Every structure is written in structure tokens, then in C-alpha cells.
Amino acid sequence: MKSLSVNLASFLLAGMMMFVGVSCSDDDKEKVTEMTGIEFVGDDVILWEGSAAPKDVLAVAIQPPDASTDALLAMVQWSSNNPSVVAIANGVFTVVGSGVATVTASLMGETAFVNVYVPVASLTTQEGTVNLRLSGTGQASVIWDAGGDVEQLDLTAGGVTCSRSFTAAATRTVYVAGGEGLKSVTFSGNEATAAQVNPLSKLTYLNCADNQLNAAALTAVIGGLPGYPANSGTGTINLGDNPGASAIDESAVTGKGWQFETDDLPEIIVSPNPASVEQGQSQMFTAVLSTEPDRGLTSDEVEWTVSKDGNSNTFIDANGMLHVMSEEAATTVTVTATLKSDGRVSGTATVTVTASVLPTLAVTPNPVNMQRGESKMFTAVLSTAPDTELTSMDVDWTVSGKVGNTNTYIDARGSLTIAPDETATTLTVTATLISDERVSGTATVTILKPTITVSPATASVQKGGEQEFEAILTNADYLPQEIEWSLPDKESSTNTYVRSGLLAVMLDETATTLTVRAALAFDKSIFGEAKVTITDPPAPSVTSVTVSPKTATVEKGGQSQQFVATVVVTGGASQEVTWSLHTATGQPYNNPNSANIHDGLLSVMATETNTTLIVRATAVDDNSKWDEATVTITNPPAPAVISVTVSPETATVTRGGNPFQFTATVVVTGGASQEVNWSVTGNANPGTTINANGQLTVTPNEPPTTTTLTVRATAVDDNSKWDEATVTIN
């Protein structure tokens, strides 16, 4: 809104003015495209009940000024938000009743508004206050408010006294409505010029001959009418640059005071009300006028504010969205919606601020065991969305508890890597919600200590002997596996050694015990040990001899049977044996042409007459240590053909095509021949033949009438044993 230039005397005369439409020229159309906005020429307006608004009181201006034409002004659309105060019909503005109305002018999508204040008439004789209205045109209107005896008012400007006496002099307060709002002016009355008048019969306008009113004795304080901001100060009151004006007919408004009934103002209803909002959450509020409950007010119409704790960042945006910060300390805040066009019209909602119930954040796996050098992925979910894994855009991952400057770390995806040289036994993985650092979750990680176990843990090794050891790693799956073997307590200068787990004790070893150590080459602090007792070797001795198998059956005719002797010795005795044959009665066998044994291999000839032979193995170093096996000698079976099988059993062969190969499998006993004789039948041409090797050839001259052949294989040693295959000719 802009400062209003109003001829106050003119609009208080109360007339009616019609806005007349004009035709639109081409120039008017061009001006439309140049228009950037519309606004009222002046500020808020005060009218009397029953009057009409003159054209110059509710005047609008088109911006920029050179875009304004009468045709465009005639197109302005007018509306009132309170027709019970100001009614608009066919372009005529009529003041209907007391109160406040907002008049809106609209043109080509642009709007402007102005408030119209209508006082109520009053004939009360209660003590009241003299009010001074500065219109900016050089006139000051002195209006008697609420009736009662008032005093003389002296206003001096440029040596010319503009005065109107009401009653005897004293000190009183007047109200001045100027460009900055209503001012309370305290002044000293002039008793010398006092005159008696009837205070109920006059409403007077003071006309001064100069622009300035001397304010040396005046103290200005903002206050009075609703909707004006508070301020204070002293100085000169400027009445403008048009001092000329005439008084109005006082009798027309006899006895009317200036008073507003604020009960007639519309209310703003804020919803929801009351409301409850959790710390860290938001709530949308809406506002409607009580006179228009079905239309929500927009951010262009209302201003939203919120009372809150002074140290919080709680705020409400222009659209009515309240954002309660997580640190808000107030238990109750008040949301206020104020009508921008009339600051007196507002509404509130009471908001209870509840403590935020934070979601929990679960980190998995938890708890978990890990090894040095291992990597493991952790995930985080909110209790409010347990099926949705949070990403690196949602949470920050950290790890605590590591020792020293190790390279243990967790990346943005939640993958924890424990450094191979990490010495901590416990770590804590933490996931923190980026949007609210109060929400976090942890997982406990136990780092398993890597160990090496040497097996066997104890051993007894003779001098000159060996012992194999094994290093068993536990909780070291992700570390370098190379093992270094050593004898940390070996003091002798002998060549006793351990390599790759094999301990070799030399004969000249003087130590009675040794420690075998297996350590990780990567970290020698990780090791395991075995204790070895060194003993002197015993005297050479054969403990036992065992022959295997213990029984066997061998056919005459050169069949063989292998025997094995196992010799258990101590003290480095020989494990060699001497093999020999004996009869069933235990007598030495002395017919090597019929049966013999060499290195445990028994051969029996066809001429052997014994049905049983004894195989003996005797220890070379101790002939008292021996073992035996019993061999049954059998005659070979008579030669016989068991069966003949031809393969394939069926075949398809092309006339004049490549030869087709058949095979015959002959099962025999007693050394019978496995040879067969091949033959073919069913052929009409002698050129179709099968050779001795079973290869069938079908001559191209085999007549078409020959469709099948029969191939037969007959055993050479038994012609009763044969088999056949069927051949289809195509």
C-alpha cells in the first residue's frame, strides 16, 4: 500500500460515484502489454456509515504510470471482504455499517488492497479524547472521540494560530494519525483564549495557512488504533504542501464521535488447534477467515509467526509449515496467522511440543568375531523401517578401539577391515544417522587371537632318528601362512635340524631335550612349540616278521603268487628277509624246476606233484624270527570254450559301400583257443563276403532282392559254440 492523498472534507460529505467504462483503443491495448502492476494511491481510509467512497479516495494507479489509460482503469474489478461494512455493486462503493473491510482491486492478474475503517456514531457524554487526523493535504481534522468535556487545543504554525476551543483549559492528550501511524500528543492548553462551546454539537476541521505545525511543546508516541506499529520520538509534524481547504457543514455530523467496534472484525481460524508436534518433526497449519470458512488463506494473505524458546531454530515458513527443532526446549509454542491487509485480524493455535521418540538403529552382525586381516560388511536399519538397509547416503560409519597406528578402518559402505598387525582385542563399529546425529547404533567386534599349535605337542626321538611335526594355525585365515621352524634352545654344535616340520636328530646330539618352534614368518610373536625328548638308540633287534597273504591257491603250469614280508626292527636292525619253500611236513623243498620263490614271487610249474607248499620268510639279522604262508597247488582245468558273442548284434550296410567290422568275444578255460571262423549267409552274389578278421563286404552287384544277411562267428576249438548278427542291406 502507498501513502494516501485524500481530500478528507470531500469523502466525509458522503456521495456516491459510479465508475464509467470507456472503449478500448489500439493504444489502450498496447498499454496493457506494458503494465507491470496495480496499487492504491493512498493508505488506509476512514469513512462514515452511510457514505459512499469518492473516486479520489479509493483511487488506484497502474504501474508504470505511462501505461495507465482510462480504458484500463475502467477494467479494474473491485471486491470487499466484508460487505456488511463496505458493499460494492456495479462499481458503486457504499458504506453499510461500522467495522473494517478490505477492498481489493484486480486487473490483468495483478491485485492491490486497502483497509476501510468505519467508526460508530456515539452521543455519550463520558470524558473522551480529542483526536487529530492528518490527511497530508494541509488539513488537520479534529474529531471528538467518546464525548465529554474537553479542553482548548492550540496548534501554532508560522505565527498563525489555528485553534478551536471546546472547554476550559488544562493538559490533555490528543491522537494524531499521520503517515507513520497514530501518535499521542501531550500539549499545554491556552487558558487565556478559552471559550465555552457545546461539546456535543461540533465536529470541526482546522485550516492552517502554513505547512508546519510548531511541535516544540509536543511529544509523539505511537499508539492508539489497532494495526499500527509501536514507535516514539519528538519533532515537527508536516501537514503537506496544500494548505488550502474549507470547513464542512458541522451540523451534518453533530455529536458523532470516532470509535471502532473491533468485535465486528472477522477472525482467523488456525487449524489444527490445539496441536501436538514431536521434537524434530513438522506440522502444516492452515488459516481461514470466519467470514469465509471454506477458503483457505494463502501465503500472500497471511503472515505466519511462532513463539518459541529463544535458543532454538524452530520456525514456521510462509506456507504455514511449522518445523519444531530437535533442541526445542519449550513445552508449548503458539502459532499465529495475521492478515497482511489488516494486522488487527489474527488467529492462533496452541502447539504442545512433545519429546521426540527417536528410532533405534540396529547394526548387524552384532556381536561378531573377526580375525586379524579379515574384512566384513556391516549393515544398519532403522526400527521404523527394518526391511530397508541404510546406504552411505543415510549413515556415517566409524570404528573405535583400535590400538596404535594400525590400518584398521571402516569404509563409507560399512565394510570393516582389521589390519593384520592390529593388537586390540575388541572394537566398536558405530553407524550414525546423517539426518539426525542423535540416532546411532553399535556393534561389538571381538578380534580372535591368532595361535599356532604344534602337533605332536610332545615326542621322543632317538639319536639318529626323525620326527615329523605339523603347525596348525587357528584364527589366522587372513594372514600370510608361511611358517618358520626353529630349535630355539639348541646349544650343541651338532647338525640336528628342523626343516618344514621335519626334525632330524643327529647321532652325536648331546642334548637330552629340544624345543621345536613354529612361528608365523609375518609376525614371529605368533608361535607354537613342541617338547622333544632325545634318547639313545637301542641295540639292533628284529621284533617280528609277518608274511602276507597267509594262504593262497596256485595252479600248476607256471602261475605265480606274490608274497610280502613285514619286518619290525629296533636299533637299526635290517628289515631284509630270506625266502624259502617247504613241504607240507616242514621239510625243505629242493625241486626248483617244479616250484621256486624269488623276492617273495612263487612260481609253480606243470610238473609239480605236491598239493601243498609252505612259503617262509626269515629275518636276515635274526633267523629265529620268521613267518609262513600255506599254498594249495591245483591242476589246471581241461581246455573248453564257454561262449561266443558277436558285436554288434544288428547292423545296416550299404551295397558297394565300405566294409563293416564285426568282433567276436570268446570265453574259454584251460587254455582253449579264442579264435573263431567267420561266415555270411543270405547273399545271392558270391562277391558278398566276410574275411577272417570279421570284416563284411557287400558287393554292389548284390541283387535288390537281398535285403538281409546273417553273419556268424564259430569257435575254432568247439564248433557248437557260435553267435550271429543280423545285417540289413540298403
Task: Offer a few descriptive terms.
730 residues, mainly beta, Immunoglobulin-like
Structural notes for this entry:
With about 725 residues, the chain is an all-beta fold. The chain folds into 7 domains: about 10-120, Immunoglobulin-like, CATH 2.60.40.1080; about 130-265, no CATH class; about 265-355, Immunoglobulin-like (Sandwich); about 360-450, Immunoglobulin-like; about 450-535, Immunoglobulin-like, CATH 2.60.40.1080; about 540-635, Immunoglobulins (Immunoglobulin-like); about 640-730, Cadherins (Immunoglobulin-like, Sandwich). Helix content is about 5%, strand content about 45%. The protein contains 3 helices and 65 strands. The longest helix is centred in the N-terminal third of the chain and has 9 residues, at about 25-35. Mean pLDDT is about 75; it is low at about 1-25 and about 120-265.
